[in-house]
Write a structure and sequence with these properties.
332 residues; alpha/beta; TIM Barrel; six-stranded parallel beta sheet; three-stranded parallel beta sheet; 13 helices; globular
């Protein structure tokens, strides 16, 4: 079995370990993602996010560069096991050489600080996917829920507020146009509903919702409505199944089960087809009690899908082939 995971926050986990004066071990750790777990789980490509909460730091770019340094050190110290994806052919090359592939992403596109020159520099650094917003309005667009709406982040209370009014700014439209020209994939997870529809309107290549589920199954604004899922499918894009309980179910008990995951997959398949479904675990960025607790356990989801009646071809499409198709069209 192979899989592609479009989103994890593991680099931030490594940085927190290092700043807590723990020795960072990229191969074996208590995080959900490390090199050994990725290998055991059958990972083909792991997307690694540089997540910067730009309101938390006086100099946000310094935080981003700390994260980038850890990503580079992981690659440098393990060049026999994992290699970066800068173009689509790298995925095929790395697999032939028996290596994992790492695809670098940004979660919070505003770290370019209103300057497209910075976007080009991130491309030169190896970034190949960008989530346009996080939970704050920025120069690109708006999230569905602004962190200014609440003082204590509790998803069950606040993630019910789709923003159908505030879309992409003029800078945001220039931003996604340059991303597509360079060969970077646009990611609409966290983006407002209005921003999503602007991406549908202005994008020329398939885009992704790297870690978002179906709103009809779990009523969180971070998830996509049925109309949004159909539009994403019509653009040739893909959405990554998020393992966070707050986006999987409305129970409020923090349990994230395989049964929950299959309920979303079933619904998305029924309304838009298999080809729009992928994986975006959000590993090491969630606090849920996850049945698929780490990367090594990804085959459990594939096995459950088989038991649920999905064919081998459908499971391969969900686990990696759909995302691979988007990468082939979006990366240069």
């Amino acid at each position: 079995m192979k899989y592609i995971d479009m989103h994890c926050d593991t680099i931030l986990g490594w940085l927190e370990q290092e700043e807590g004066r723990e020795e960072v071990d990229f191969a074996q750790s208590d995080l959900s993602v490390d090199l050994d777990k990725l290998k055991r789980g059958g990972c083909l490509v792991q997307n690694f996010a540089l997540f910067t909460d730009r309101k938390k730091y006086a100099v946000p770019e310094k935080q981003t560069m700390k994260l980038y340094d850890l990503y580079c050190r992981m690659l440098e110290q393990n060049e026999d096991r994992i290699a970066p994806v800068l173009r689509f052919s790298d995925i095929e090359k790395n697999e032939k050489e028996g290596k994992l592939s790492a695809l670098l992403t940004l979660e919070e596109g505003d770290v370019v600080f209103n300057d497209l020159a910075m976007l080009r520099n991130y491309y030169r650094m190896g970034v190949r996917m960008i989530a346009l917003t996080w939970n704050y309005p920025n120069a690109i667009g708006h999230p569905n829920v602004s962190m200014s709406d609440f003082s204590h982040y509790k998803a069950a209370d606040v993630l019910q507020k789709p923003n159908e009014k505030d879309g992409l700014s003029e800078f945001g439209k220039q931003y996604i146009a340059l991303m597509e020209e360079l060969g970077m994939i646009v990611d609409v997870s966290h983006l407002s509903d209005a921003g999503f529809w602007d991406v549908v309107r202005y994008s020329t290549k398939p885009f992704v919702a790297s870690h978002s589920n179906a709103r009809a199954v779990c009523c969180a604004a971070r998830n996509l409505s049925d109309d949004m899922i159909r539009a994403l499918a019509s653009k040739g894009g893909v959405m990554g199944l998020n393992f966070c309980a707050d986006f999987l179910n409305d129970r409020g008990d923090e349990r994230s089960t395989i049964e929950d995951m299959i309920a979303h997959i079933d619904h998305i398949r029924d309304i838009a087809g298999i080809d729009v479904i992928g994986i975006g675990t959000d590993f090491d960025g969630i606090l849920s009690d996850v049945e698929v607790r780490d990367a090594s356990m990804m085959p459990a989801l594939a096995y459950a899908l088989q038991e649920h009646g999905y064919t081998e071809e459908e499971i391969d499409s969900i686990m990696y082939k759909n995302v691979l198709r988007v990468y082939k069209k979006g990366l240069k």
